[in-house]
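User: I'll paste a sequence; please echo it back and then give the predicted structure.

Assistant: Echoing your sequence first, then the prediction.
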Amino acid sequence: MSVPRWIRSYAGPAVVSVLLIGAVVGGVQLRSGEDAAKASGCRADPAAIRAIRAEPILTQTPRLARLDDPVEGLTCGTPSSFGSVSRRLTAPPTGTDVAEFYAGLAGRTGWKPFEYSNYLYSATKETGGCPWWFLLRAEGDAYQLRVMYQPAGVPATDCAWATTEPIFLQATIPVGR
């Protein structure tokens, strides 16, 4: 038995329309990232940011490489909340050389490598609560270094990456803007 053509043509748009109307009538409210941060109490942690900015993995480079200025970010809400400090590394060495440099440096400065990383290199550092997580990935002709931390005001039980490598998200709210 064949479904009439008019049903196939209009069923999808009708379902989407019903869902949108239901969301509006039902009071579902989409919030901007800043509104979600305010509502949840999630905020940047200045002490963690200062400590992360001083970490050798964000201050030292392989020979002939250069780091751009640090960029701080904050993501609050579902599925997890995290703060981050990132730096862009421009370097002539290959990805393998860069990964080896940061693996050695991380090992000497208290970071524990994540064995099954989806990135060039990934490691955690215990902080007494939710660990910091360092991610190194290739980004075009450069590399992105990022340390993620748990923001202030987020419950200790909301440590999404305590055992599972976080996803390198680009959508973060710049801190201090």
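The chain has one domain: 33-174. The radius of gyration is 21 Å.
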